[in-house]
Amino acid sequence: MLEGLELFAYRKADHLVALTDAFKAHILAKGISSKKVTVIKNGADFSLYKKPPHGHTNLLRELGLEGKFVASYFGTHGMAHHLETVLEAARELTESGRTLYFFLSATAPNEVGLWPCGMK
Predict the structure, then answer these.
(1) In terms of residue numbers, what domain contains 21?
(2) Most buried one in 1, 27, 36, 55, CB count within 10 A?
(3) Are residues 62 and 27 in the same domain?
(4) pLDDT value of residue 44
(5) Which of 24, 48, 51 is nearest to 38 (CA)?
(6) How far is CA 62 from CA 65, 81, 86, 106, in A?
(7) Overall number of domains in the chain
């Protein structure tokens, strides 16, 4: 039923925007014309950003993370991204005796559901 709704929405849309070439291929495989689909990749254009003149040490110092291992994820924190997996990996690495810090930045639609897993 949901696939039928998906195809209905694709057919009725004036134009579709896919975030990756793989998403576009998925849509085209449904019989939608390639003229109706544009790929606009979801990501950062690093040419728009400049490295701070003194590096990133001020931010690390401010956060108390200078000289520590930090894994970061910036982006959508939706149900499809299953952040519980990231939190479980953090738990396993911590239990192995490693000291590390995970920095996740965004608002999650299911944020409250992640709190029992250790995210706040």
Answers:
(1) 2-39
(2) 27
(3) no
(4) 67
(5) 24
(6) 8, 29, 24, 20
(7) 2
